Amino acid sequence: MKDKYRNGFLLFGVIAIVIMLCTFDMDYTDIWHSLRRAGAWFPAVLLLWLFVYLLNTASWYLIIHDEGHCKGLGFWRVFKLSVSGFALNYMTPCGLMGGEPYRIMELTPYIGASKATSSVILYVMMHIFSHFWFWLFSILLFIVIYPVKLQIGILLALITLFCLLAIYFFVRGYRTGMALKACTLLTHIPGIRKWARQFVTEKESSLRQIDEQIAMLHRQHRRTFYSSLLLEFLARLLSSLEIYFILRAFSAGVSIADSVLILAFSSLFSNMIFFSPMQLGAREGGLALAVEGLNLSGALGVYTGLITRVRELFWVAVGIILIRLGNRK
After folding, report:
1. Looking only at Cα atoms, what is the longest distance across the chain?
2. pLDDT per position as a tens digit, 66-75
3. What Cα–Cα distance (Å) separates residue 46 from each residue in 127, 204, 235, 318?
4. Distance of alpha carbon 150 from alpha carbon 171, whole angstroms
5. Distance between CA atoms of 323 and 6, rounded to whole angstroms?
6. What pTM, to 2 d.p., does this model score?
7. Distance, CA of 319 to CA of 172 (rounded, Å)
8. Are 163 and 136 in contact (CB under 8 A)?
9. Which pLDDT score is estimated for 181?
């Protein structure tokens, strides 16, 4: 990638961080008080996410190297691109609009535009795909450890149906590819219809090649496919320890299973409101509702959301710094 493009991503990241710091919806003295109260648990949370990102990177690394080792793309270079990509996504409304172009542009000199695009699309699909499996697992976990009343049972049934339907469409997408279909859908949207038709006409062969590579991973490289999915699922489970650490810091008696449930249902709620950068407000509201659902104080959900937000800002800053570090000519 040319330096001017990297500088553009870097500038965007710095401006976004400044805006988020200036629009933080809590007083900084309250933030400092919460961090002091968390004590040694807060550094543990920051370190925990290093291992979460390592699992994410391993999942993407398998996809990139599914047809053999790509020269110059070692694990730590992929880790750098992974963390920077997540940082850009955190700051972008709707997500998946800043980090993915950055990853594709950085990968293209190593593996070509087609392979770079397909590997990024595949990883994004895998990242989202694992969410639905995590939610299904959490529903089963809830049924095992808690009594299910009628209203809760109906809600869980609806969520289960939604997850199964989403998994069905993802499996179909893996079998036939999604790039050409997604671009074809854009041709029906007013405002970008003309541009989308021209794009599909000019890039149809490239889009078909990308779809073939997506389908190939599911059809011919099943070991890579399921290993990548397992790593993403494990990353979800590991990230639930963040909630466990924070609630333990505030002397809340919760189990690791409770932390998994809180993460699952709060992430489900916040992903329904996906259009805000860093899911501002949605994350805290989802955590408060999930914590109250387990008969804990709603204030604990707010504190958890606050410390989670500070952790995100820390790793966003790390990701933005990594954009300029370790680049090769």
Report:
1. 62
2. 877 777 888 9
3. 21, 44, 15, 11
4. 31
5. 7
6. 0.85
7. 33
8. yes
9. 74
Distance in Å from the first CA to the final CA of the chain: 9
Contact by Cβ (8 Å): 20, 278: yes
On whether the CB atoms of residues 284 and 291 are closer than 8 A, the answer is no
Please give the single-letter amino acid code of residue 239.
S
In this structure, are residues 82 and 53 in contact, taking their beta carbons and an 8 Å threshold? yes
Roughly what angle, to the nearest 10 degrees, separates helices 193-220 and 222-249? 100
CA–CA separation, 29 and 176 (whole Å) = 53
- What is the C-alpha separation between 319 and 92, in angstroms, rounded? 14
Alpha helices (H) along 65-192: 75-90, 99-111, 113-145, 150-176, 179-186
Nearest residue to 212 via CA among 108, 67, 83? 67
What would the two tokens of residue 13 be? 């990241």
Residues 312/73, Cβ–Cβ less than 8 Å: no
CA dihedral 161, 138, 142, 257 (to 10 degrees): 180
Q: What are the CA-CA distances from residue 290 to residues 160, 184, 266 (Å)?
A: 17, 38, 6
Q: In terms of Cα–Cα distance, which of 51, 11, 12, 79 is closest to 242?
A: 51
The CA-based angle 215-220-223, given to 5 degrees, is: 110
Per residue in 283-294, pLDDT (tens digit) is 555 555 555 555
Closest of 282, 328, 311, 254 to residue 25, by C-alpha: 282
Does the structure show a pLDDT above 60 at 163?
yes
Q: Residue 15 half-sphere exposure, CB side, CA atoms within 13 Å?
A: 7
Provide CB contacts within 8 A for 44, sequence distance 6+: 245
